[in-house]
Every structure is written in structure tokens, then in C-alpha cells.
């Protein structure tokens, strides 16, 4: 009677665990989001890309000779003045003339032109500065796009990796369920003690808890990918089942491409050119500043108390102004010295960026090569572990191995699949980052 009650308890627990199955990674009736589709969505929606595009458009709009100060400025003016005054005039013959509440009016209007025709070549340096800032913004935009694309690829394949890990865990859980069934049957037959059934149930619960935790991580990664794509974080989608790795990357090619195409190096070179232009701008104040001005003015005035009660005038005015810095408290020397130090700092920044880049490439390429080796070893190891688990399960069914041995076979299988899938993801992440830092990441 006790055996029957215990058997009913085990069957009930098994039914409960089986009924609360872990959620599948593939969402029913939801289309698969391909990597290409994810990249297309990001290029349209990603906030960082949008902001960078606006900054690039602003920099491009600034590249004009007018903004650099090469063109004249023309302004129209209009002035009207009115006053009501009481005037008392004493003439030379001592007669007094008094005018009460006289209405005085004046109107002036015209057009004036001002043009700096020489400023020590500062306007040409400024124009070059705007062009370099345009290149700087374009390089930053390309870098933002490359970084975003790389982030999407790595996040997407992280989901693929997690999906594979979940499937492996689900396979182990299926083995644990069979183990419970076998141990229960053998217990009912009096072949094993209750401890075997308990151990099988504990193993199943442990595996189920691990699977639930992995699925929660999988969901969080989905939310993160939706965030990068700038869409509703709860948008459901399915991902691919495989990770395709480029196994033909060569270290020499990567270093050569990075020297000419790496965004960080390109930005550092542009910053150096900007510092050199800044020195030209500072030196321009040593030269004279020359400007011309001209204009045409119309003037009408009425003054009842004046000798000429009504006066109209019009005509052309023109002139030239010139100035030169003679002494400014040695500030000119100070500004030039600081500008030269900025050039020196920019050269140091380029060398630092180049050294950091070479170190980063070395680390990533080492991870890439070790990952490829792990893939080659791990693929065969997964198959061996799977066969070993199947044989161990059959031996457990007929009672020739212990529960600890079948559990060890499960762990070996999970370890083998984990190493293999992580190696695939490691290689893909290293490959993607290497292509991103060389400016060659494929966004098609």
C-alpha cells in the first residue's frame, strides 16, 4: 500500500513538471527576423544614426565661402524720428522768436555694403576648417553606422547562441524525464531504492530551473535588440538557427586595412589637420585687416525752427578701414605657442590610436583563431557526448549504471554543447569587431 501511494506521488510530480513545460524559443505565428531585415530597420530608425545624420547635414551646410567671411555683407536701413519741441530763438539784433510745439520729423533710409578684403588669410583658413569639419562629421557618421551594425550583428548572433543553448537544455530535460520514468518503473519493480527516484526528480528540477533562467536571459536580449532597432521593446520575433562564420580573415590584410580605413585613426588625422588650420588662423592676426564700405542714403527732415525748414539729401558714401595689431600684451605669442602644442598633441594622439588599434587587432585575432580551433574540436566532441548520453541512458534503463553516471553523461553533453556554441559566437563576435574597426563590415 505504501508503495502504491509513493508511486502515485511520483507520477503526480512527473505530470506536474511535464505540464509546466519551458516556453519554446520559437514564437508561434511570428515571422523570423533575418539579420538583413534587422540592419535595414536600424538604418532607418536607430536614434544614434539619425542624430549623426543631422550633425553631418549641419557640417555640410556650413561649407560656404560666405560663412568663411569671403563675401560682402549688404544691409538696408530705415530710420524715422519725430519730436515736438517749443523753441525760443534770440537773434543777433536782440529780437526774440518763439515757436511753440513745433513738430520736427526726420527720415533716413538706404543700403550699405561692408566687405573685408584682407584679414591675413584667415578667411581661407576658416573655409578649409569648415571642409575638414564636414569630413569629420561624415567620418563620425560612418563610424556610428559601423558600430551600430556591429552591435546588431553581435546581439543577433548572441540570441542565436542562446537559442541553441536552450535547445540543448531542453534535450537534457527530456533525458531527465526519461530517467524519472525508468527509475519509477524500476522502483515499482523493487529493483532500486526510493533514493534513485528522488535523485532523478532533483536532476529534472535543477535542469528546469537552469532552462527558465536561460530563457529569461534570452527574453532580455530580445528586448535589447528591439531597443537598438528603436522599436517597441516587446515586439516579438524569431531568429535564425545557425551562425555563419567567415574563416578566411588574414592578420596582414586586417592591419593594412585598419591603417587606412579605421574610423578612429581617420578622426585623429582630421583633428591634426584642424589643429594645423587653427595655427594659420592664429597667425593671421599678425597681418593688417583691411575692409571697404560703401552705401547710398536718402534723407528727409523738417524743422520749423531751423534756417532751412525742409531739407532733402541723397548720395553715395564710401570708405576704407585698416588696422594692425602692434602690441597686445604678448597674447599673440601665447596663442601661437598653444596652437603649436595642440598640433604636437594631435600627433601623439595619432600614435596612441595606432598603438591601441594594433593591440586590439592582436587580441581579437587571437580570440578569432582560438575560436576556430574550438569549433573544429567542439563539433566532434558534441557528437561524441551525444552518443555517450544515449548509451548511458540505455544502460541506466537496464540498470547497469548508477544515477550519478547518467548525470555525469548529461553534464558532459551540456559542457560540450556549451563550449561549441560559445566558440561559434566568440568567432563571430571577433570577426564582426575586426571588420568594424577596419571599416569593412558588411551591411548588406
From TrEMBL:
UniProt cross-references to InterPro entries, sorted A to Z: OMP_efflux (IPR003423), TolC-like (IPR051906)
Signal peptide (from-to): 1-22
Record family assignment: Belongs to the outer membrane factor (OMF) (TC 1.B.17) family.
Name the UniProt record assigns to this protein: Outer membrane protein
Keyword Transport assigned: yes
Keyword set, alphabetical order: Cell outer membrane, Membrane, Signal, Transmembrane, Transmembrane beta strand, Transport
Entry keyword Repeat: no
UniProt cross-references to Gene3D superfamilies, sorted A to Z: Outer membrane efflux proteins (OEP)
Taxonomic lineage: Bacteria, Pseudomonadati, Bacteroidota, Sphingobacteriia, Sphingobacteriales
Pfam families on file: OEP
UniProt subcellular location: Cell outer membrane
Amino acid at each position: 500500500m505504501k508503495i502504491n501511494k509513493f508511486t502515485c506521488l511520483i507520477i503526480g510530480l512527473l505530470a506536474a513538471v511535464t505540464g509546466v513545460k519551458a516556453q519554446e524559443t520559437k514564437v508561434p505565428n511570428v515571422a523570423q527576423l533575418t539579420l538583413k531585415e534587422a540592419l535595414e530597420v536600424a538604418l532607418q530608425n536607430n536614434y544614434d544614426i539619425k542624430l549623426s545624420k543631422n550633425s553631418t547635414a549641419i557640417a555640410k551646410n556650413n561649407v560656404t565661402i560666405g560663412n568663411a567671411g569671403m563675401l560682402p555683407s549688404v544691409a538696408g536701413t530705415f530710420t524715422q524720428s519725430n519730436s515736438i519741441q517749443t523753441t525760443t530763438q534770440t537773434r543777433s539784433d536782440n529780437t526774440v522768436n518763439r515757436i511753440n510745439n513745433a513738430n520736427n520729423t526726420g527720415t533716413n533710409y538706404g543700403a550699405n555694403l561692408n566687405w573685408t578684403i584682407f584679414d591675413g588669410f584667415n578667411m581661407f583658413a576658416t573655409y578649409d576648417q569648415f571642409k575638414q569639419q564636414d569630413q569629420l562629421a561624415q567620418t563620425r557618421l560612418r563610424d556610428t553606422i559601423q558600430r551600430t551594425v556591429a552591435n546588431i550583428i553581435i546581439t543577433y548572433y548572441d540570441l542565436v547562441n542562446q537559442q541553441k543553448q536552450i535547445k540543448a537544455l531542453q534535450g537534457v530535460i527530456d533525458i531527465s524525464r526519461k530517467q524519472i520514468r525508468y527509475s519509477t518503473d524500476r522502483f515499482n519493480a523493487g529493483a532500486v531504492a526510493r533514493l534513485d527516484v528522488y535523485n532523478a526528480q532533483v536532476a529534472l528540477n535543477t535542469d528546469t530551473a537552469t532552462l527558465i533562467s536561460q530563457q529569461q536571459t534570452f527574453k532580455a536580449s530580445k528586448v535589447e535588440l528591439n531597443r537598438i532597432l528603436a522599436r517597441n521593446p516587446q515586439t516579438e520575433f524569431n531568429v535564425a538557427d545557425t551562425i555563419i562564420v567567415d574563416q578566411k580573415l588574414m592578420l596582414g590584410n586586417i592591419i593594412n586595412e585598419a591603417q587606412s580605413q579605421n574610423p578612429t585613426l581617420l578622426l585623429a588625422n582630421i583633428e591634426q589637420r584642424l589643429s594645423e588650420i587653427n595655427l594659420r588662423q592664429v597667425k593671421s592676426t599678425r597681418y593688417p585687416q583691411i575692409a571697404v564700405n560703401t552705401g547710398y542714403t536718402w534723407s528727409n527732415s523738417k524743422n520749423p525752427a531751423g534756417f532751412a525748414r525742409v531739407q532733402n539729401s541723397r548720395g553715395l558714401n564710401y570708405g576704407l578701414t585698416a588696422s594692425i595689431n602692434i602690441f597686445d600684451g604678448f597674447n599673440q605669442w601665447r596663442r601661437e605657442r598653444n596652437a603649436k602644442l595642440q598640433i604636437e598633441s594631435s600627433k601623439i594622439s595619432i600614435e596612441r590610436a595606432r598603438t591601441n588599434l594594433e593591440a586590439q587587432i592582436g587580441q581579437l585575432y587571437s580570440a578569432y583563431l582560438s575560436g576556430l580551433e574550438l569549433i573544429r574540436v567542439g563539433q566532434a566532441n558534441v557528437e561524441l557526448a551525444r552518443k555517450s548520453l544515449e548509451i548511458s541512458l540505455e544502460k541506466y534503463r537496464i540498470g547497469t549504471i548508477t544515477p550519478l553516471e547518467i548525470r555525469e553523461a548529461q553534464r558532459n553533453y551540456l559542457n560540450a554543447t556549451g563550449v561549441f556554441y560559445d566558440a561559434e559566437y566568440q568567432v563571430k563576435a571577433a570577426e564582426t569587431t575586426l571588420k568594424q574597426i577596419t571599416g569593412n563590415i558588411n551591411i548588406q
